[in-house]
Amino acid sequence: MDEDLDDIVGDIITQLKGTTALTKREPEDELTKEKLEEFIIKNSGKLIMKSLNIIDDVQAYISSAPDAKDVAAFAELLKASSASMESLNKIYISLEKNKTVRDVKQMDIESKERQNTQDNIVTLISRKEIMKELMGKSKEDGSVVDV
Fold it and tell me: Running DSSP on this structure, what letter comes out for residue 20?
């Protein structure tokens, strides 16, 4: 019986040794201004996903044995998770708004360029051609007065 107990304890110790091995983390790059947006979005998304998983776990724990401290902790967790989701949503809305404003401004610039091009077209004709056109139109009207 002692041997069976020793084997079981030995198995548990071996399992614990295998699971407690530290994983090596990759060295993180220095955070620059250009990478800040990507960093915020990536890590905010990770944080939100982890907090949603924790909320599910805590909710299952609380439903089995509710305690006032646990319920208060659960409420704070919900509050923090919803605040982080709201922040990420604001970032997304801001990015979309900037993109839309940029597109509208580009369309406005193109429209003004087309309008300026059409307004700046100057027809160059000579005096003789002007007189010819004026005389040609008056002959077509039939209102030519002979003097």
Answer: S
User: Does the predicted TM-score (pTM) go above 0.70?
Assistant: no
Among the listed residues 59, 85, 89, the one whose alpha carbon sits nearest the alpha carbon of residue 73 = 59
Cβ–Cβ under 8 Å, residues 79 and 32: no
- The three-state secondary structure class of 14 is helix
Q: Per the structure block, which two tokens stand in for 144? A: 């030519």
Express each pLDDT in 47-64 by its tens digit: 888 988 988 888 888 888
Is 58 in contact with 77 (CB distance < 8 Å)?
yes
Q: 4-15: per-residue pLDDT in tens?
A: 666 776 677 777
CB of 82 within 8 A of CB of 105? no
